[in-house]
Amino acid sequence: MSKQLLQVENLTVSVEEKEILHGVNLIVRAGETHVLMGPNGAGKSTLGNALMGDPRYKVTGGRIVFDGRDLTAEAADVRSKAGMFMSFQTPLEVPGLTLGNFIRTASEQRTGQRIKIWAFRKEMKRAMEMLEMNPDWMDRDLNVGFSGGEKKKAEILQLLMLKPSFAILDETDSGLDVDAVRTVSEGIREYQKDKNVSLLIITHSTRILEALHVDAVHVLVQGAAAASGGPELVDEINARGFEDFQKK
C-alpha cells in the first residue's frame, strides 16, 4: 500500500465566526485521485482553501497532516513549498508579471534552486502546446486578457510545471466548453502519470471526471461528510443528484 500523503482529522473551519465545516475526515495516499462533490454551498471550496492555509478560513478544531508533518498552523507559502498546490475557481489577473516569470519564480521558490531560463522555456513551451496554448502567452501578463478557459488552462500549466506532490483542483471545469474540458483533462492525465502524486478534485459536475482515473469519491453536504465510496458513486450522483444524500 502506498504511503499516506494527506490526513485530515476531525477538521472544523469557520469563516467570519460562522462554522462551515463540521468535523471532516479525509485520508489521501500517494498516487490516488479523490473527488469531492456536493451541492452548492456544501463547503467544498472551504475545505480546499483551508487545506491550503488561506487566512480567511480559520481552523477551529482538528488538524491537517501532510507528508507526516502537521501543517495546521502553517501559512500558505509553507504548504506550497511542502508540495501542496491549488487551482482556483477564479484565477487572479496580475498586471506586470508574465505567466512565464510567475511560474519560473514559483518553481525556484518551491525547489530552492535557480532554473536555467532556456531549459525552462523549452519545457514550458512543450506543456503549453499539449494544452493547446499559444507559446507566446508565456510572455503575456498573468491572466490579463485571458478568457475563462485560457485562465483554467494556465492553472493546469502551473500544475504541470510546478509538479506538486498534492494538487487541489477547485471547479477546474466550471465555465469550460466541451473542447476545453477535453484539453484540461489531458493535462490532468499527464500529471497523474506520476504515481507518487495525488489529486483532490472539487466539483459539482462530472464532465471532467469522464476521462480521468478516480480512486475515491466523497460527498459533502452542509459542511459534513454525507458519503464516501468508489468511482461508482459518481454514477449514483448522475442518476439521482444530491437529494438522497441531503436527507441522510
Helix content estimate: 25-40%
Principal-axis shape equals: globular
The topology string of helices and strands comes to EEEHEEHEEHHEHEHEEEHH
Mean pLDDT: 91
Derived structural class: alpha/beta
Could you characterize the architecture of this molecule?
This protein has eight helices and twelve strands. It has a domain of 172 residues: Rossmann fold. A hairpin with a 2-residue loop joins strand 4 and strand 5. It is globular and about 50 Å long. The protein is an alpha/beta fold and 248 residues long.
List the helices and strands and how they pair.
Elements: E1 4-15, E2 18-29, E3 33-37, H1 44-52, E4 58-66, E5 69-70, H2 76-82, E6 84-87, E7 94-98, H3 99-111, H4 117-130, E8 141-142, H5 148-162, E9 166-170, H6 178-192, E10 198-202, E11 216-221, E12 224-229, H7 232-240, H8 243-247
Parallel strand pairs: 3-10, 3-11, 6-9, 9-10
Antiparallel strand pairs: 1-2, 1-4, 4-5, 7-8, 11-12
Note the main attributes of this structure:
four-stranded antiparallel β-sheet, Rossmann fold, 12 strands, alpha/beta, 248 residues, six-stranded mixed β-sheet, single chain
Summarize the structure.
With 248 residues, the chain is α/β, with parallel strands linked by helices.
